[in-house]
Fold each of these.
Amino acid sequence: MQTTPTILLPKPQTLFQHRAARFRQLAKTHASLAAYLNLMAELADCQHSLSINSHHTKLPDSDTRCPLAISDWRRDLVWREYLRQIVDYFKHQTGNINAIINHIQQTNDEELEIWADQLLAGEMENLEPGIALFIAAALQVYWVSLAARLNADNIKPAEIAYFCPVCGSLPVASVLQTGGLVKGLRYCCCGLCTTEWNHPRIVCIHCGSSKGVAYYNVEGAGEIVKAEACAECNTYIKLMNREIDISLDPCADDLATLSLDMLMAEEAYQRLGFNLLLITG
């Protein structure tokens, strides 16, 4: 008898390819963000090329609780190779991006590792926004390629429900699934390794309360993406519905709905997690 999976591991063979297509689809309907979303589509194209040719780096000895934890997993230097290939891919860009690429190419390995540590720890203050984007893209390819090779049946839930059970990162969004055993169930999606883990609906992911949970969306924006907000802890996370649009991608649809984040800021809610590919500043 089949049981409902608690953890869904990423599929790098199609993940970034699907994300690139979604970015381009969203760019057609979000005129003000079109240039940004098309740039992200190019980045996802590059990530796809790297992921299908990724090197088989070391895995942990056993699949236990948080086997690839960002707090203590020792990164293989291959992630820096991914970074160099990504910046080479964007050499044709002009203006600010070209300056960022030159900066990364002239930076030594020790500094790159410091930047990666800062990004994974959420310490964005000392990171240039453009540099953080490329560092994040390389780290995503690295962690996705590792997570995909784990055995989901052996991975234990994280001790704290809102952390990824594979790498310990925060979710970029949560998704209502469709089809088969997962139909109608809500899964949180990791912003780094893209692992998804089951979490009850209408229950705050941050504090576990079912009181004061409310849903917000931008007028005229449709029902695909809403913000699930908790009055108890004053946090929110985006809730995306694949039953309405099966082609959605948590990372892409999050960046296309920045107006929803602005609405939630006006309502004085604090977001749980963030998108590693968001260019701020």
Note: Residues 1-281 form a domain with the FdhE-like fold fold (CATH 3.90.1670.10).
Amino acid sequence: MQKKFVATAAALAVVSGLFFTGSAASAAPAALSGKGSSFAANAITYCAAHYDPASGDTVTYTSTGSGTGRSEFAAGNVQFAVADGGYTSGYPTTRWVNIPLLGGPIVFAYNKAGVTTTKNVKGKKVKVVTKLPANIKLTASVVSEILKGTVTNWNDTKIVALNKGVTLPDHVINVYYRTSGSGTTANLTTYLSQTLGGGWTANSKDLLASAGGTLASTAKAKATSAVIADLVQADPYGFGYFDLSDAASANVNFASLKNAAGAFVAPSAAAAAKFLNAQAATKDSSNTIEGDRTDGLLSIDFTKNVPGAYQLSIVTYGLAHRNSSAANDIAVKGFFSYVVNTCMPAYAASHGYVALTGALKTTALSQIAAIG
């Protein structure tokens, strides 16, 4: 259908040229490419696949992690990037704009399937399944100790105290975390630093460095959220963090997290929306490249008391060139408008993401307008 449209447009351009001497030919459809956040990969990939503008523009997106997306955009290798946070180094040398696109919760996930063994019962072989209970409750303090390796077993007294009445296995917790450069990790380390009052370097994209150089002895770093989701699904005692969309599509359980109101809340799009809608974006009107570093970004207060909220919820941003009239940049503007106005309202809630509304959506549209 798209090829038919392009062919028709080209034919019309030829015909119009017969009547209007010197008129410009129709612009060729843009072929946009972007890289970045694996947290938002399911959403952005879906939107790219379903984007069908009258211009015939097409979009491809590669999940590489936020850090790679930012560096590829700064180097001019892609037309846009998607990241779970702004630049802290390696800045572009030209003006850019940070655009909130969508939100969602970071999930602490663990294995659901368990271990199947065979036992002899009265001379008969019987299959026995041993698995972790659903909806394990955790606090920021216990999560911190699991990641750092001071809480090492699933039946540690600190986990047991939060989950009375359930049986937890006497087995080491196998930890999976994101490799350096992850925007998901940067938000997690800020959450831990704010909530615990220290012990972690905030806004660090390197979990090991943020923890002071020591993580659990079982900890293994992996490149993307999807890879960690697969590993946790396969490991009977696995534990890791990633987006709700990947958690919902994998055969994993996810923990309920104690929020600032004192309630244990399971990760959901609705609970994340409550938290994110209580946050405000930074507006820098200096109109300088230095101002671009924070303009449009949320300064999230992870300690904010929001009843019913899932506390560890974040926003993913689109990165585009500012004040540009280039055809590719105008095409990026069209795609980001589609993500915020059309794709996410239809897709987000049923797939573990948050579509922007209210003041956050107003900020997003204002930032999109700044592209050109």
Note: The mean pLDDT is 91.
Amino acid sequence: MKWRCNYCGFEGDASRTYYWRCPRCSSPLSLDYPVECEFSSSNVVWERYSGFTPFKPSKWRGEGLTPLVSEKTSGHTLLFKLDYLNPGGSFKDRGTALSIAYAYMLGYKKTLVDTSGNTGISVALYSKLYGLEPTIVMPKTAPVGKKKAVLKLGGRLVEAESRTAATQIVEEYIGEPGVYYVGHLWSPLYIIGHATIAYEVYEDYGVPDYVILPIGSGGLLLGVVYSFEKLRECGFMEKTPRIIGVQGYSCQPVYRALYGVEEKGEDSTLADGVMVYNPPRAGEVAGKIREHGGDVVLVGNTEISRAHSELWQMGFLVEPTSAIVYAAYWRIREKIPSNSSILMVLTGSGLKTLL
């Protein structure tokens, strides 16, 4: 298992030393490890797809293997991946389970993360599972229910004025003895963890024609693309889906990276979970969207609110950030050929936003 920087060529032994970013040029790192092209029949996600992951966490709480629900509408097959049903209420549990297991393997005693909410809950949950002490830095504007969940899980909560300020605050703690900075915006372990989503979809359905994904840091999109690429390399499939990313008008760094401009539109503050203004992998995300014939769709609060209400009426109890994928579908549905299948990952539980 080896760290690799695709920008400056740095390499390091990941079994001995943790780097949350490249120590030479400060760019995001990749993780190199051998891949075995096989699934098992286990009902534990890390055993089922152990050939595609660098190691198996020693503890878990039932993350992964979430339901895939199919609905027919407007001549399309809509595939809803219910990742808000993970133990911590979001898809982040997949990446966190790997990341915190790795911290434990290397002997860290404390964990640290800056987050808009869901990652904080996830890091607190898995840190406590391994007996580590979590510090969660969140903006004051984060939903109250998410803050209460962090505290209930035993996390130390530090509030910041904004999401950007939260990132600045963690810099005060990085480098302290025994502190593991999760760095989920940077970490390839989150990309690898999120990749299990597409392995599950492939087993449950096959290969969808389109995939619509929310973009905050871009780790979810990179993980899903990575897994479909691996499945193709392993000979399980001949084509990969067209990838559609979704951002809001209030925060569109990947749209800007893809097209070189920003578009004016209605505020998208309801989708607080994707308000990442400077994602470290923005260029990488834009490149993968371009490579897979995709696009970035921008939505505003009116569309988000309508999609959120409709999803609840359909029985999907998600938070507003999750609804941006459904809002994007309605924006582009007339451009999608009839009889196409469209995968939408529903990322976070709405129950945490009701308190």
Note: Residues 188-204 form the longest helix (17 residues).
Amino acid sequence: MAIRRRTHWLTLPTLALLITVLVGACSGPDGASEDTRPAEGDRSSGALVIIGGGLSADNEEVYRAILDRRAGDGPLCVIPTAGASPESSMESAVGRIDRWGGEGTARGLLLHLEEPEAADLPATAEAIRECSGYFFTGGVQSRILDYFLPEGRETPAYTALLERFHAGAVVSGSSAGAAMMSDPMIAGGSSEGAFEDGLALDADEDGVRIRPGMGFISGATFDQHFLARGRIGRLLIAVAGPSGAEWGAGIDEDTALILEQGRARVAGASGVVMVDGRGVSPVEHPAEVRGLTVELVGPGDEVDLVTFSVSPAPDRTPLGAARDAGFDVVGEELFERWAFLHLLQALGADERESWSTELHGFRIELRKLPGFRAVASDVEGVEGTPLGLSVGPFEVNLAPL
């Protein structure tokens, strides 16, 4: 796959300014809380804090999840490569992180495609190695790949970043900064396009666009703004198709999926949809899919990434019929904002064993599996659904009409 690369040569004044920004000193936080970060070498690799976009400045739980997983005494470095206005998005993120970690906790690394040559500078790699962790801002995830891995080439900046991750430094990111973490990576496309055209493994094809990602985790893929934007269709197709992803996670807004030591935990305001494709059954028709497993996990829930078993947060109670909003969807309504969230709430609260609809030449069916759970807290969450809603597992089957 060819990757377009913008080539703007650095002038000497610009180069000097860039090096100053990258390697400038950063004072430690004043009056910060007790440091609970792991020492260097305590972990084989760092944690991933994968945020579904729309991160509120007040979401202390998610910011603490990032700050508590730093490794070393360096700053938490904000990398705005994905943004259309990288400097402003960098400054905004630095301010938000400093609010929770203390002034001087975060440092901005102004790495962007206007100056792609900086990815090969020793000063850039050195600045990256000084960081205790990383936060990638939102925007367009392909910009991150085009900067750190232009045409698939590993730059010194990428090598330094990967070294720090394997030494225990946390890697976090929101929206595009979340999508880029996996390999393969969802680069774009809609749920409707997923069902109409399938996977787009080439930049010129229609459908769900797939390309190699940054590879902090392989064999998985992440989608963001997930429930808010009705993206269930494109994640199902990405996992079911020949993308290389065995499983995927659709992370809603203002919510994070924290991956470390073979487990995942949800934090924040909404939920995460886990899609497991490891048990997909072979079928004769190339457009047919049988045996995908889907479940919604809520804040405080944990997932064993080996067995995919879910441990709900301890304060959850069964979702009774009184919580059923009588919600149902037909056809393309499935891809409307928040529709899949409300559907899962309804299926969890009543006695239906299955649900199905027809769209874009397919029948899609959700069928409850043994061990099915439907629990939530008594606190109201997004869109009038209960906070901590945790429903599943479902088997998902797709069949052409």
Note: The chain has two domains: 46-276, 289-400.
